[in-house]
Protein backbone atom coordinates (compact mmCIF):
# COMPACT_ATOMS: atom_id res chain seq x y z
CA UNK A 1 0.00 0.00 0.00
CA UNK A 2 1.27 3.43 -0.92
CA UNK A 3 0.09 5.09 2.25
CA UNK A 4 1.92 2.66 4.50
CA UNK A 5 4.51 4.35 6.63
CA UNK A 6 3.42 7.81 5.64
CA UNK A 7 3.04 10.38 8.36
CA UNK A 8 -0.29 11.69 7.10
CA UNK A 9 -2.84 11.67 9.88
CA UNK A 10 -6.03 10.11 8.70
CA UNK A 11 -9.31 10.94 10.30
CA UNK A 12 -11.01 7.62 10.72
CA UNK A 13 -14.16 9.43 11.68
CA UNK A 14 -14.85 13.06 12.40
CA UNK A 15 -18.08 14.99 12.80
CA UNK A 16 -18.44 18.74 13.06
CA UNK A 17 -21.62 20.21 14.51
CA UNK A 18 -23.54 17.27 13.05
CA UNK A 19 -27.28 17.79 13.40
CA UNK A 20 -30.20 15.71 12.17
CA UNK A 21 -33.73 16.93 12.67
CA UNK A 22 -36.78 14.86 11.80
CA UNK A 23 -40.20 16.49 11.64
CA UNK A 24 -41.01 15.57 15.21
CA UNK A 25 -37.65 14.91 16.84
CA UNK A 26 -34.03 16.05 16.81
CA UNK A 27 -32.05 12.84 16.51
CA UNK A 28 -28.58 14.44 16.57
CA UNK A 29 -27.80 17.79 18.10
CA UNK A 30 -24.54 19.56 17.13
CA UNK A 31 -22.41 16.45 17.55
CA UNK A 32 -18.68 17.02 17.24
CA UNK A 33 -16.38 14.05 17.67
CA UNK A 34 -13.03 12.89 16.34
CA UNK A 35 -12.13 9.23 16.37
CA UNK A 36 -8.86 7.45 15.65
CA UNK A 37 -8.02 3.85 14.75
CA UNK A 38 -8.93 0.87 16.87
CA UNK A 39 -12.24 0.02 18.47
CA UNK A 40 -14.58 2.88 19.30
CA UNK A 41 -17.67 2.37 21.36
CA UNK A 42 -20.78 4.44 20.78
CA UNK A 43 -22.88 4.32 23.90
CA UNK A 44 -26.35 5.60 24.47
CA UNK A 45 -29.79 4.50 25.51
CA UNK A 46 -32.24 3.28 22.88
CA UNK A 47 -33.31 6.27 20.83
CA UNK A 48 -30.18 8.27 21.69
CA UNK A 49 -29.38 8.67 17.98
CA UNK A 50 -26.88 5.85 17.45
CA UNK A 51 -28.54 4.29 14.40
CA UNK A 52 -29.21 7.72 12.86
CA UNK A 53 -25.53 8.57 13.25
CA UNK A 54 -24.51 5.34 11.48
CA UNK A 55 -26.90 6.03 8.59
CA UNK A 56 -25.43 9.50 8.18
CA UNK A 57 -21.89 8.12 8.32
CA UNK A 58 -22.78 5.62 5.56
CA UNK A 59 -23.97 8.56 3.47
CA UNK A 60 -27.52 7.21 3.36
CA UNK A 61 -29.13 10.08 5.26
CA UNK A 62 -28.27 13.73 4.64
CA UNK A 63 -27.48 15.75 7.77
CA UNK A 64 -29.69 18.78 8.53
CA UNK A 65 -26.67 20.83 9.52
CA UNK A 66 -22.97 20.33 10.11
CA UNK A 67 -20.92 17.63 8.43
CA UNK A 68 -19.02 14.43 8.88
CA UNK A 69 -16.09 12.62 7.35
CA UNK A 70 -15.38 8.91 7.31
CA UNK A 71 -11.85 7.86 6.30
CA UNK A 72 -11.35 11.43 5.03
CA UNK A 73 -14.37 11.16 2.74
CA UNK A 74 -17.29 13.54 3.02
CA UNK A 75 -20.59 11.83 3.87
CA UNK A 76 -22.76 14.18 1.82
CA UNK A 77 -20.75 14.12 -1.42
CA UNK A 78 -18.70 10.91 -1.32
CA UNK A 79 -21.23 8.41 0.01
CA UNK A 80 -20.55 5.83 -2.71
CA UNK A 81 -16.80 5.86 -2.07
CA UNK A 82 -17.42 5.49 1.67
CA UNK A 83 -19.69 2.52 1.12
CA UNK A 84 -17.03 0.78 -0.97
CA UNK A 85 -14.58 0.64 1.92
CA UNK A 86 -16.88 0.49 4.92
CA UNK A 87 -18.80 -2.47 6.32
CA UNK A 88 -22.13 -2.31 8.10
CA UNK A 89 -23.81 -4.80 10.41
CA UNK A 90 -27.38 -3.68 11.14
CA UNK A 91 -29.12 -4.19 14.45
CA UNK A 92 -32.16 -5.91 12.97
CA UNK A 93 -32.48 -9.35 11.36
CA UNK A 94 -31.45 -9.21 7.73
CA UNK A 95 -30.95 -12.81 6.65
CA UNK A 96 -33.25 -14.61 4.20
CA UNK A 97 -34.04 -18.04 5.70
CA UNK A 98 -33.86 -20.15 2.53
CA UNK A 99 -30.30 -19.23 1.52
CA UNK A 100 -27.06 -20.67 2.90
CA UNK A 101 -24.56 -18.43 4.67
CA UNK A 102 -21.91 -19.10 2.01
CA UNK A 103 -24.21 -18.19 -0.87
CA UNK A 104 -25.43 -15.08 0.94
CA UNK A 105 -21.98 -13.76 1.84
CA UNK A 106 -20.59 -14.49 -1.66
CA UNK A 107 -23.46 -12.56 -3.21
CA UNK A 108 -22.99 -9.55 -0.92
CA UNK A 109 -19.24 -9.59 -1.61
CA UNK A 110 -20.07 -9.22 -5.31
CA UNK A 111 -22.41 -6.37 -4.43
CA UNK A 112 -19.37 -4.67 -2.86
CA UNK A 113 -17.56 -5.00 -6.18
CA UNK A 114 -15.50 -8.16 -5.68
CA UNK A 115 -15.20 -10.39 -8.77
CA UNK A 116 -16.88 -13.78 -8.34
CA UNK A 117 -13.80 -15.91 -7.59
CA UNK A 118 -12.45 -13.33 -5.14
CA UNK A 119 -15.90 -13.13 -3.56
CA UNK A 120 -15.89 -16.89 -2.97
CA UNK A 121 -12.42 -16.91 -1.44
CA UNK A 122 -13.17 -13.95 0.81
CA UNK A 123 -16.51 -15.43 1.92
CA UNK A 124 -14.86 -18.72 2.90
CA UNK A 125 -12.15 -16.76 4.75
CA UNK A 126 -14.42 -14.50 6.78
CA UNK A 127 -16.91 -17.22 7.61
CA UNK A 128 -14.00 -19.19 9.06
CA UNK A 129 -12.82 -16.13 10.99
CA UNK A 130 -16.23 -15.54 12.55
CA UNK A 131 -16.35 -19.21 13.50
CA UNK A 132 -18.87 -20.76 11.15
CA UNK A 133 -17.88 -24.30 10.17
CA UNK A 134 -19.84 -26.88 8.16
CA UNK A 135 -23.16 -25.23 8.98
CA UNK A 136 -22.34 -22.44 6.56
CA UNK A 137 -23.66 -24.63 3.72
CA UNK A 138 -27.07 -25.00 5.42
CA UNK A 139 -30.04 -22.65 4.96
CA UNK A 140 -29.86 -19.82 7.50
CA UNK A 141 -33.47 -20.28 8.64
CA UNK A 142 -32.29 -23.00 11.02
CA UNK A 143 -29.48 -20.96 12.60
CA UNK A 144 -29.29 -19.96 16.26
CA UNK A 145 -29.14 -16.26 17.17
CA UNK A 146 -25.39 -16.59 17.75
CA UNK A 147 -24.81 -18.05 14.29
CA UNK A 148 -27.01 -15.40 12.68
CA UNK A 149 -25.01 -12.62 14.35
CA UNK A 150 -21.82 -14.22 13.01
CA UNK A 151 -23.16 -14.24 9.45
CA UNK A 152 -24.22 -10.62 9.83
CA UNK A 153 -20.70 -9.80 10.96
CA UNK A 154 -19.17 -11.85 8.12
CA UNK A 155 -21.11 -9.95 5.44
CA UNK A 156 -19.83 -6.67 6.91
CA UNK A 157 -16.23 -7.94 6.70
CA UNK A 158 -16.26 -9.82 3.43
CA UNK A 159 -14.99 -6.97 1.24
CA UNK A 160 -12.12 -6.24 3.65
CA UNK A 161 -13.34 -2.78 4.66
CA UNK A 162 -11.10 -0.18 6.26
CA UNK A 163 -13.77 0.45 8.87
CA UNK A 164 -16.89 -1.31 10.07
CA UNK A 165 -20.01 -0.05 11.82
CA UNK A 166 -21.54 -2.63 14.14
CA UNK A 167 -25.00 -1.75 15.43
CA UNK A 168 -25.73 -3.61 18.68
CA UNK A 169 -23.82 -6.77 17.70
CA UNK A 170 -24.41 -8.48 21.05
CA UNK A 171 -28.18 -8.08 20.97
CA UNK A 172 -30.03 -11.27 21.85
CA UNK A 173 -26.88 -13.28 22.63
CA UNK A 174 -26.44 -15.41 25.75
CA UNK A 175 -23.50 -14.55 28.05
CA UNK A 176 -21.15 -16.97 26.31
CA UNK A 177 -22.13 -15.82 22.84
CA UNK A 178 -21.72 -12.23 24.03
CA UNK A 179 -18.17 -12.91 25.26
CA UNK A 180 -17.25 -14.61 21.99
CA UNK A 181 -18.69 -11.77 19.92
CA UNK A 182 -16.83 -9.17 21.98
CA UNK A 183 -13.57 -11.09 21.66
CA UNK A 184 -14.10 -11.26 17.90
CA UNK A 185 -14.73 -7.50 17.69
CA UNK A 186 -11.56 -6.88 19.65
CA UNK A 187 -9.63 -9.11 17.22
CA UNK A 188 -11.08 -7.22 14.24
CA UNK A 189 -9.90 -3.93 15.72
CA UNK A 190 -6.41 -5.17 16.60
CA UNK A 191 -5.30 -8.24 14.64
CA UNK A 192 -7.30 -7.53 11.46
CA UNK A 193 -6.36 -3.85 11.58
CA UNK A 194 -9.89 -2.69 10.74
CA UNK A 195 -11.26 0.29 12.63
CA UNK A 196 -14.49 -0.50 14.42
CA UNK A 197 -17.39 1.66 15.52
CA UNK A 198 -19.57 -0.48 17.76
CA UNK A 199 -22.78 0.65 19.41
CA UNK A 200 -24.33 -0.69 22.56
CA UNK A 201 -26.70 0.40 25.25
CA UNK A 202 -24.76 -1.80 27.67
CA UNK A 203 -21.82 0.17 28.96
CA UNK A 204 -20.06 -2.60 30.83
CA UNK A 205 -19.38 -4.70 27.76
CA UNK A 206 -17.81 -1.88 25.74
CA UNK A 207 -15.15 -1.02 28.28
CA UNK A 208 -13.71 -4.49 27.80
CA UNK A 209 -12.99 -4.05 24.10
CA UNK A 210 -12.86 -0.35 23.25
CA UNK A 211 -9.94 2.03 22.91
CA UNK A 212 -12.22 5.01 22.81
CA UNK A 213 -15.76 5.63 23.96
CA UNK A 214 -18.34 8.17 22.80
CA UNK A 215 -21.35 8.65 25.00
CA UNK A 216 -24.42 10.29 23.49
CA UNK A 217 -27.80 10.99 24.97
CA UNK A 218 -30.80 12.43 23.11
CA UNK A 219 -28.49 13.20 20.18
CA UNK A 220 -26.07 15.25 22.24
CA UNK A 221 -22.49 14.39 23.04
CA UNK A 222 -21.96 13.63 26.72
CA UNK A 223 -18.39 12.56 26.45
CA UNK A 224 -15.79 11.40 23.98
CA UNK A 225 -12.49 10.16 25.30
CA UNK A 226 -9.98 7.34 25.39
CA UNK A 227 -10.95 4.44 27.58
CA UNK A 228 -7.97 5.10 29.89
CA UNK A 229 -9.20 8.61 30.65
CA UNK A 230 -12.62 7.20 31.23
CA UNK A 231 -11.66 4.73 33.86
CA UNK A 232 -8.90 6.68 35.58
CA UNK A 233 -11.16 8.80 37.71
CA UNK A 234 -13.14 5.94 39.09
CA UNK A 235 -10.72 3.06 39.19
CA UNK A 236 -11.60 0.69 41.94
CA UNK A 237 -10.87 -2.85 42.99
CA UNK A 238 -13.42 -5.40 44.05
CA UNK A 239 -12.06 -7.57 46.88
CA UNK A 240 -13.76 -10.71 48.10
CA UNK A 241 -12.55 -12.74 51.08
CA UNK A 242 -14.01 -15.85 52.60
CA UNK A 243 -14.47 -14.44 56.13
CA UNK A 244 -13.44 -11.36 57.98
CA UNK A 245 -14.69 -8.68 55.62
CA UNK A 246 -15.14 -6.30 58.51
CA UNK A 247 -11.59 -6.54 59.95
CA UNK A 248 -10.11 -6.20 56.50
CA UNK A 249 -12.13 -3.06 55.80
CA UNK A 250 -10.95 -1.57 59.07
CA UNK A 251 -7.33 -2.50 58.46
CA UNK A 252 -7.37 -0.95 54.98
CA UNK A 253 -9.02 2.20 56.28
CA UNK A 254 -6.26 2.45 58.89
CA UNK A 255 -3.71 2.39 56.06
CA UNK A 256 -5.44 5.32 54.43
CA UNK A 257 -7.33 3.46 51.70
CA UNK A 258 -10.83 4.48 50.69
CA UNK A 259 -13.02 1.46 51.31
CA UNK A 260 -16.74 0.90 50.86
CA UNK A 261 -18.46 -2.31 51.80
CA UNK A 262 -21.07 -3.88 49.53
CA UNK A 263 -22.34 -6.92 51.42
CA UNK A 264 -19.60 -9.56 51.19
CA UNK A 265 -17.55 -7.42 48.82
CA UNK A 266 -15.19 -4.55 49.42
CA UNK A 267 -14.72 -1.78 46.87
CA UNK A 268 -11.30 -0.19 47.25
CA UNK A 269 -10.39 2.98 45.37
CA UNK A 270 -7.07 2.63 43.60
CA UNK A 271 -4.77 5.49 44.53
CA UNK A 272 -1.71 3.86 43.00
CA UNK A 273 0.31 0.64 43.03
CA UNK A 274 0.52 0.87 46.80
CA UNK A 275 -3.21 0.07 47.05
CA UNK A 276 -2.55 -3.42 45.72
CA UNK A 277 0.31 -3.86 48.21
CA UNK A 278 -1.85 -2.65 51.06
CA UNK A 279 -4.58 -5.16 50.26
CA UNK A 280 -2.08 -8.00 49.91
CA UNK A 281 -0.38 -7.14 53.20
CA UNK A 282 -3.66 -6.71 55.05
CA UNK A 283 -4.94 -10.09 53.83
CA UNK A 284 -1.70 -11.81 54.84
CA UNK A 285 -1.55 -10.09 58.24
CA UNK A 286 -5.13 -11.02 59.07
CA UNK A 287 -4.57 -14.55 57.70
CA UNK A 288 -7.65 -14.30 55.47
CA UNK A 289 -8.63 -16.42 52.47
CA UNK A 290 -8.60 -14.13 49.40
CA UNK A 291 -11.13 -15.32 46.82
CA UNK A 292 -11.17 -12.54 44.30
CA UNK A 293 -9.50 -9.25 43.56
CA UNK A 294 -10.52 -7.63 40.27
CA UNK A 295 -10.82 -4.33 38.54
CA UNK A 296 -14.17 -2.80 39.23
CA UNK A 297 -16.95 -3.12 36.67
CA UNK A 298 -19.47 -0.49 35.58
CA UNK A 299 -16.90 2.22 35.60
CA UNK A 300 -18.14 3.83 32.41
CA UNK A 301 -21.65 3.51 33.68
CA UNK A 302 -20.77 5.59 36.73
CA UNK A 303 -19.28 8.30 34.55
CA UNK A 304 -22.29 8.15 32.30
CA UNK A 305 -24.65 8.56 35.23
CA UNK A 306 -22.69 11.45 36.68
CA UNK A 307 -22.47 13.29 33.39
CA UNK A 308 -26.09 12.63 32.48
CA UNK A 309 -27.01 14.12 35.83
CA UNK A 310 -24.81 17.16 35.11
CA UNK A 311 -26.43 17.83 31.79
CA UNK A 312 -30.00 17.61 32.98
CA UNK B 1 1.66 -33.93 11.36
CA UNK B 2 0.70 -33.20 7.81
CA UNK B 3 -3.04 -33.00 8.51
CA UNK B 4 -2.71 -30.07 10.87
CA UNK B 5 -4.51 -26.93 9.76
CA UNK B 6 -2.53 -23.81 10.33
CA UNK B 7 -4.34 -20.62 11.15
CA UNK B 8 -2.72 -18.20 8.76
CA UNK B 9 -4.52 -15.26 10.34
CA UNK B 10 -6.50 -12.52 8.68
CA UNK B 11 -5.58 -11.76 5.10
CA UNK B 12 -6.33 -8.40 3.54
CA UNK B 13 -7.86 -8.13 0.09
CA UNK B 14 -5.94 -6.03 -2.39
CA UNK B 15 -7.58 -7.26 -5.58
CA UNK B 16 -9.90 -5.22 -7.78
CA UNK B 17 -13.01 -3.52 -6.46
CA UNK B 18 -15.37 -3.10 -9.38
CA UNK B 19 -17.92 -0.32 -9.68
CA UNK B 20 -21.69 -0.14 -9.21
CA UNK B 21 -22.17 -1.21 -12.85
CA UNK B 22 -20.65 -4.60 -12.08
CA UNK B 23 -22.73 -4.97 -8.91
CA UNK B 24 -25.91 -4.12 -10.81
CA UNK B 25 -25.10 -6.70 -13.51
CA UNK B 26 -24.33 -9.32 -10.87
CA UNK B 27 -27.60 -8.57 -9.08
CA UNK B 28 -29.53 -8.79 -12.37
CA UNK B 29 -28.02 -12.19 -13.14
CA UNK B 30 -28.59 -13.36 -9.55
CA UNK B 31 -32.25 -12.32 -9.73
CA UNK B 32 -32.73 -13.89 -13.17
CA UNK B 33 -31.30 -17.17 -11.92
CA UNK B 34 -33.58 -16.90 -8.89
CA UNK B 35 -36.67 -16.51 -11.11
CA UNK B 36 -35.94 -19.87 -12.73
CA UNK B 37 -34.97 -21.41 -9.38
CA UNK B 38 -31.33 -21.92 -10.46
CA UNK B 39 -29.05 -22.27 -7.47
CA UNK B 40 -32.14 -22.87 -5.33
CA UNK B 41 -33.88 -26.02 -4.18
CA UNK B 42 -35.33 -28.46 -6.71
CA UNK B 43 -38.81 -27.48 -5.59
CA UNK B 44 -38.39 -23.87 -6.67
CA UNK B 45 -37.39 -25.01 -10.18
CA UNK B 46 -40.62 -26.97 -10.80
CA UNK B 47 -43.01 -24.08 -11.42
CA UNK B 48 -40.89 -21.90 -13.76
CA UNK B 49 -39.65 -24.83 -15.83
CA UNK B 50 -43.08 -26.46 -16.04
CA UNK B 51 -44.55 -23.20 -17.36
CA UNK B 52 -41.65 -22.69 -19.77
CA UNK B 53 -42.22 -26.20 -21.16
CA UNK B 54 -45.96 -25.55 -21.55
CA UNK B 55 -45.05 -22.41 -23.52
CA UNK B 56 -42.99 -24.56 -25.89
CA UNK B 57 -45.79 -27.02 -26.67
CA UNK B 58 -47.60 -24.79 -29.23
CA UNK B 59 -44.26 -24.25 -30.95
CA UNK B 60 -43.78 -28.00 -31.26
CA UNK B 61 -47.31 -28.41 -32.62
CA UNK B 62 -46.76 -25.55 -35.11
CA UNK B 63 -43.55 -27.09 -36.37
CA UNK B 64 -45.22 -30.49 -36.70
CA UNK B 65 -48.08 -28.92 -38.68
CA UNK B 66 -45.63 -27.14 -40.97
CA UNK B 67 -43.57 -30.28 -41.51
CA UNK B 68 -46.43 -32.74 -42.00
CA UNK B 69 -49.28 -30.65 -43.44
CA UNK B 70 -47.27 -27.84 -45.08
CA UNK B 71 -49.58 -25.51 -43.22
CA UNK B 72 -48.95 -22.79 -40.64
CA UNK B 73 -50.09 -23.32 -37.07
CA UNK B 74 -50.41 -20.47 -34.60
CA UNK B 75 -49.66 -17.01 -36.04
CA UNK B 76 -46.68 -15.16 -34.49
CA UNK B 77 -48.90 -12.24 -33.63
CA UNK B 78 -51.47 -14.45 -31.84
CA UNK B 79 -49.02 -16.35 -29.64
CA UNK B 80 -48.96 -14.05 -26.56
CA UNK B 81 -52.73 -13.52 -26.55
CA UNK B 82 -53.49 -17.24 -26.79
CA UNK B 83 -50.87 -18.21 -24.18
CA UNK B 84 -51.78 -15.37 -21.81
CA UNK B 85 -52.94 -17.50 -18.83
CA UNK B 86 -49.58 -19.31 -18.75
CA UNK B 87 -47.63 -16.05 -18.95
CA UNK B 88 -49.82 -14.52 -16.23
CA UNK B 89 -49.31 -17.51 -13.92
CA UNK B 90 -45.55 -17.29 -14.51
CA UNK B 91 -45.63 -13.60 -13.58
CA UNK B 92 -47.75 -14.20 -10.48
CA UNK B 93 -45.66 -17.15 -9.32
CA UNK B 94 -42.21 -15.64 -9.92
CA UNK B 95 -42.52 -11.86 -9.48
CA UNK B 96 -42.76 -12.19 -5.67
CA UNK B 97 -39.53 -14.24 -5.54
CA UNK B 98 -37.71 -11.30 -7.14
CA UNK B 99 -38.67 -8.53 -4.71
CA UNK B 100 -40.48 -9.96 -1.68
CA UNK B 101 -37.71 -11.72 0.31
CA UNK B 102 -35.39 -8.68 0.41
CA UNK B 103 -38.24 -6.54 1.76
CA UNK B 104 -39.70 -9.09 4.12
CA UNK B 105 -36.39 -10.19 5.64
CA UNK B 106 -34.96 -6.67 5.51
CA UNK B 107 -31.98 -7.53 3.35
CA UNK B 108 -32.32 -4.23 1.48
CA UNK B 109 -30.20 -2.21 3.97
CA UNK B 110 -27.29 -4.58 3.27
CA UNK B 111 -27.44 -3.65 -0.42
CA UNK B 112 -27.83 0.05 0.29
CA UNK B 113 -24.84 0.09 2.66
CA UNK B 114 -22.78 -0.99 -0.36
CA UNK B 115 -22.09 0.96 -3.57
CA UNK B 116 -25.49 -0.24 -4.89
CA UNK B 117 -28.00 2.64 -4.83
CA UNK B 118 -31.72 2.05 -4.67
CA UNK B 119 -32.12 3.04 -8.35
CA UNK B 120 -29.62 0.39 -9.40
CA UNK B 121 -31.24 -2.19 -7.16
CA UNK B 122 -34.71 -1.61 -8.62
CA UNK B 123 -33.33 -1.45 -12.20
CA UNK B 124 -31.62 -4.82 -11.74
CA UNK B 125 -34.87 -6.37 -10.50
CA UNK B 126 -36.91 -4.87 -13.36
CA UNK B 127 -34.38 -5.98 -16.00
CA UNK B 128 -34.22 -9.51 -14.57
CA UNK B 129 -37.99 -10.01 -14.53
CA UNK B 130 -38.38 -8.43 -17.98
CA UNK B 131 -35.68 -10.72 -19.37
CA UNK B 132 -37.35 -13.78 -17.83
CA UNK B 133 -40.75 -12.96 -19.32
CA UNK B 134 -39.23 -12.07 -22.67
CA UNK B 135 -37.36 -15.38 -22.78
CA UNK B 136 -40.58 -17.20 -21.90
CA UNK B 137 -42.34 -15.72 -24.95
CA UNK B 138 -39.43 -15.24 -27.35
CA UNK B 139 -38.03 -18.76 -27.10
CA UNK B 140 -41.11 -20.55 -28.56
CA UNK B 141 -41.53 -17.79 -31.19
CA UNK B 142 -37.91 -18.25 -32.23
CA UNK B 143 -38.35 -22.01 -32.29
CA UNK B 144 -41.31 -21.66 -34.69
CA UNK B 145 -39.32 -19.26 -36.88
CA UNK B 146 -36.31 -21.57 -37.06
CA UNK B 147 -38.69 -24.42 -37.86
CA UNK B 148 -40.25 -22.34 -40.63
CA UNK B 149 -36.83 -21.63 -42.14
CA UNK B 150 -35.74 -25.27 -42.01
CA UNK B 151 -38.99 -26.70 -43.38
CA UNK B 152 -39.05 -24.14 -46.20
CA UNK B 153 -42.77 -23.53 -46.64
CA UNK B 154 -44.09 -22.18 -49.94
CA UNK B 155 -43.86 -18.40 -50.02
CA UNK B 156 -41.35 -16.13 -48.26
CA UNK B 157 -40.66 -16.63 -44.50
CA UNK B 158 -42.69 -14.38 -42.19
CA UNK B 159 -39.65 -12.54 -40.87
CA UNK B 160 -41.49 -9.25 -40.41
CA UNK B 161 -44.26 -10.92 -38.41
CA UNK B 162 -41.71 -12.75 -36.27
CA UNK B 163 -39.72 -9.59 -35.48
CA UNK B 164 -42.94 -7.67 -34.83
CA UNK B 165 -44.08 -10.33 -32.36
CA UNK B 166 -40.67 -10.17 -30.63
CA UNK B 167 -40.85 -6.38 -30.29
CA UNK B 168 -44.33 -6.60 -28.83
CA UNK B 169 -43.22 -9.43 -26.52
CA UNK B 170 -40.53 -7.12 -25.14
CA UNK B 171 -43.03 -4.30 -24.54
CA UNK B 172 -45.44 -6.78 -22.95
CA UNK B 173 -42.66 -8.06 -20.67
CA UNK B 174 -41.86 -4.54 -19.50
CA UNK B 175 -45.53 -3.79 -18.80
CA UNK B 176 -46.15 -7.06 -16.96
CA UNK B 177 -42.90 -6.71 -15.00
CA UNK B 178 -43.69 -3.18 -13.87
CA UNK B 179 -47.12 -4.20 -12.57
CA UNK B 180 -46.04 -7.56 -11.22
CA UNK B 181 -43.11 -6.14 -9.24
CA UNK B 182 -45.07 -3.12 -7.99
CA UNK B 183 -47.85 -5.38 -6.69
CA UNK B 184 -45.41 -7.92 -5.22
CA UNK B 185 -43.38 -5.19 -3.49
CA UNK B 186 -46.53 -3.85 -1.83
CA UNK B 187 -47.33 -7.32 -0.47
CA UNK B 188 -44.01 -8.66 0.83
CA UNK B 189 -45.50 -11.97 1.98
CA UNK B 190 -44.90 -14.27 -0.94
CA UNK B 191 -48.32 -15.96 -0.92
CA UNK B 192 -50.09 -12.62 -0.81
CA UNK B 193 -47.93 -11.37 -3.65
CA UNK B 194 -48.88 -14.34 -5.83
CA UNK B 195 -52.56 -13.86 -4.98
CA UNK B 196 -52.56 -10.11 -5.66
CA UNK B 197 -50.89 -10.44 -9.08
CA UNK B 198 -53.21 -13.24 -10.19
CA UNK B 199 -56.25 -11.35 -8.85
CA UNK B 200 -55.42 -8.24 -10.87
CA UNK B 201 -54.88 -10.36 -13.98
CA UNK B 202 -58.19 -12.22 -13.54
CA UNK B 203 -59.96 -8.92 -13.01
CA UNK B 204 -58.52 -7.56 -16.26
CA UNK B 205 -59.52 -10.78 -18.02
CA UNK B 206 -63.08 -10.90 -16.66
CA UNK B 207 -63.74 -7.19 -17.17
CA UNK B 208 -63.20 -7.38 -20.96
CA UNK B 209 -66.18 -9.58 -22.01
CA UNK B 210 -68.52 -7.96 -19.47
CA UNK B 211 -67.85 -4.38 -20.59
CA UNK B 212 -67.52 -5.35 -24.28
CA UNK B 213 -70.83 -7.25 -24.16
CA UNK B 214 -72.67 -4.47 -22.36
CA UNK B 215 -71.51 -1.75 -24.74
CA UNK B 216 -72.23 -3.95 -27.75
CA UNK B 217 -75.81 -4.55 -26.57
CA UNK B 218 -76.17 -0.76 -26.39
CA UNK B 219 -75.04 -0.59 -30.04
CA UNK B 220 -71.92 1.34 -28.97
CA UNK B 221 -69.61 -0.65 -31.25
CA UNK B 222 -66.80 1.93 -31.35
CA UNK B 223 -66.76 2.34 -27.58
CA UNK B 224 -66.92 -1.43 -27.09
CA UNK B 225 -63.56 -1.88 -28.85
CA UNK B 226 -61.88 0.11 -26.06
CA UNK B 227 -62.89 -2.63 -23.62
CA UNK B 228 -60.15 -4.91 -25.01
CA UNK B 229 -57.51 -2.48 -23.79
CA UNK B 230 -58.32 -3.31 -20.17
CA UNK B 231 -56.32 -6.50 -20.51
CA UNK B 232 -52.54 -6.16 -20.98
CA UNK B 233 -52.30 -8.94 -23.57
CA UNK B 234 -54.99 -7.48 -25.85
CA UNK B 235 -53.63 -4.00 -25.20
CA UNK B 236 -50.26 -5.09 -26.59
CA UNK B 237 -52.00 -6.90 -29.45
CA UNK B 238 -53.60 -3.55 -30.32
CA UNK B 239 -50.14 -1.97 -30.28
CA UNK B 240 -48.97 -4.72 -32.62
CA UNK B 241 -51.85 -4.04 -35.01
CA UNK B 242 -50.95 -0.34 -35.04
CA UNK B 243 -47.18 -0.84 -35.38
CA UNK B 244 -46.96 -3.86 -37.69
CA UNK B 245 -50.42 -4.12 -39.27
CA UNK B 246 -51.03 -7.62 -37.92
CA UNK B 247 -54.48 -9.22 -37.76
CA UNK B 248 -56.32 -8.34 -34.53
CA UNK B 249 -56.81 -11.26 -32.14
CA UNK B 250 -60.01 -9.78 -30.79
CA UNK B 251 -63.62 -9.69 -31.84
CA UNK B 252 -64.35 -6.42 -33.70
CA UNK B 253 -60.80 -5.11 -33.68
CA UNK B 254 -59.27 -2.30 -31.63
CA UNK B 255 -59.54 1.48 -31.50
CA UNK B 256 -57.35 2.79 -34.34
CA UNK B 257 -54.30 5.00 -34.01
CA UNK B 258 -51.55 5.28 -31.41
CA UNK B 259 -53.91 5.32 -28.40
CA UNK B 260 -53.08 1.73 -27.26
CA UNK B 261 -49.35 2.46 -27.44
CA UNK B 262 -49.76 5.66 -25.43
CA UNK B 263 -51.85 3.82 -22.84
CA UNK B 264 -49.14 1.15 -22.61
CA UNK B 265 -46.43 3.75 -22.01
CA UNK B 266 -48.58 5.57 -19.45
CA UNK B 267 -49.26 2.31 -17.57
CA UNK B 268 -45.57 1.39 -17.55
CA UNK B 269 -44.68 4.86 -16.22
CA UNK B 270 -47.39 4.60 -13.57
CA UNK B 271 -46.28 1.16 -12.31
CA UNK B 272 -42.59 2.13 -12.32
CA UNK B 273 -43.58 5.24 -10.34
CA UNK B 274 -45.37 3.09 -7.74
CA UNK B 275 -42.32 0.84 -7.54
CA UNK B 276 -40.01 3.83 -7.09
CA UNK B 277 -42.18 5.26 -4.32
CA UNK B 278 -42.34 1.89 -2.58
CA UNK B 279 -38.57 1.59 -2.60
CA UNK B 280 -37.99 5.18 -1.59
CA UNK B 281 -40.02 4.44 1.51
CA UNK B 282 -38.24 1.11 2.10
CA UNK B 283 -34.83 2.77 1.74
CA UNK B 284 -35.68 5.46 4.29
CA UNK B 285 -36.49 2.90 6.97
Characterise this structure:
- Chain B: It holds the Pfam family ABC2_membrane_2.
- Chain B: This is ABC-2 type transport system permease protein.
- Chain B: Keywords: Membrane, Transmembrane, Transmembrane helix.
- The complex is a heterodimer of chains A (312) and B (285).
- Chain A is an alpha/beta fold and 312 residues long.
- Chain A folds into two domains: 219 residues, Rossmann fold (3-Layer(aba) Sandwich), CATH 3.40.50.300; 60 residues, Alpha-Beta Plaits.
- In chain A, 37% of the residues lie in helices and 26% in strands.
- Chain A has eleven helices and 14 strands.
- In chain A, the strands form three sheets. A six-stranded mixed beta sheet of chain A has the order 6-7-8-3-9-10, with helices on both faces. Chain A has a four-stranded antiparallel beta sheet with strand order 2-1-4-5.
- In chain A, helix 3 packs across helix 4, helix 4 crosses helix 5 and helix 9 packs across helix 10.
- The radius of gyration of chain A is 23 Å and the shape is globular.
- Chain B has one domain.
- The radius of gyration of chain B is 22 Å and the shape is globular.
What's a concise summary of this model?
The complex is a heterodimer of chains A (312) and B (285). Chain A has 312 residues and is an alpha/beta fold.
Amino acid sequence: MATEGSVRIMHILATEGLTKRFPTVTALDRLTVDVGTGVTGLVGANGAGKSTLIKILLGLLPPSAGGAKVLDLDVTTQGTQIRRIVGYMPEHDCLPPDVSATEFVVHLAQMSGLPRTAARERAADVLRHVGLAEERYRAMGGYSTGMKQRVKLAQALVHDPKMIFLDEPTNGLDPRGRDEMLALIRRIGTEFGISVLVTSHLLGELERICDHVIVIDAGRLLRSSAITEFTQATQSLTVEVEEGVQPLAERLAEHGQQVTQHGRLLLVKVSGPETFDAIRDAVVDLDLCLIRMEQGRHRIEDVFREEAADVV
Amino acid sequence: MSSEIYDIGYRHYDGPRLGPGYATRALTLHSLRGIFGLGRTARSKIMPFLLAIIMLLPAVVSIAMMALLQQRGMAYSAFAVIMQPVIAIFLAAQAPTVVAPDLRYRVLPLYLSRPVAVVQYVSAKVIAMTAALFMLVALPLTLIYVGELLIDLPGPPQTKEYLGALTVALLLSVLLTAFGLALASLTPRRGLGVASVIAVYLLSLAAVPVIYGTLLSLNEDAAARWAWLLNPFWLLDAVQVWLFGSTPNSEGGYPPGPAPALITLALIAFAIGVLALRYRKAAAQ
